[in-house]
Design a protein that fits this description.
2 domains; alpha+beta
């Protein structure tokens, strides 16, 4: 959830969640811990999050506690909007590759499932054939060569399907 911070003309920051004024250091600590913040100008309602985050970076640089290297800051100044656009493009490309890889993994799974369904159907057919052959063998042995009784064969098939002994 995004934490709403109001910035007043005096540049004081007011946390609407805790109903109190907060410092830039507190804001920076929240952001480092994973909290998303949105800073709006109280008078105009304008989003001033980017300016506030830039101010945090600037203040940390003045104190010598910045986490950003000089090289990165130089690159941001040189590239400006291009750096942001490139970063967005890279994220899009990575997401496209991730989605495509996920789709590629689904094909073999789908084919394996279809093959398992075919094997299951074939196995059921084989079991039915085995039951029929066994019924014919038992019937033939019982009658000593007499013509088979279709009623007996059908009842054995039913008992097999129910899992009952023959």
């Amino acid at each position: 959830m995004v934490r709403l911070i109001k910035r007043y003309e005096s540049r004081k920051l007011y946390d609407t969640e805790e109903s109190r004024y907060v410092s830039l250091d507190e804001l920076a600590a929240w952001i480092r811990s994973g909290q998303e913040v949105r800073v709006v100008d109280n008078a105009t309602g304008t989003d001033v999050t980017a300016q506030t985050l830039t101010q945090i970076i600037l203040d940390e640089g003045r104190r010598g506690t910045a986490f950003l290297s000089s090289e990165l800051l130089h690159e941001l100044v040189r590239a400006g909007q291009r750096a942001v656009e490139t970063g967005v493009d890279q994220v899009h490309q990575k997401m496209d590759r991730f989605v495509q890889a996920s789709i590629d993994r689904l094909g073999p799974v789908r084919r394996a499932r279809e093959e398992m369904d075919r094997l299951r159907t074939r196995l059921e057919e084989l079991e039915t054939s085995l039951v029929r052959l066994e019924d014919e063998r038992v019937a033939s042995a019982a009658r000593g060569g007499r013509p088979r009784n279709p009623t007996t064969t059908a009842s054995r098939r039913e008992r097999h399907k129910k899992g009952e002994p023959q």
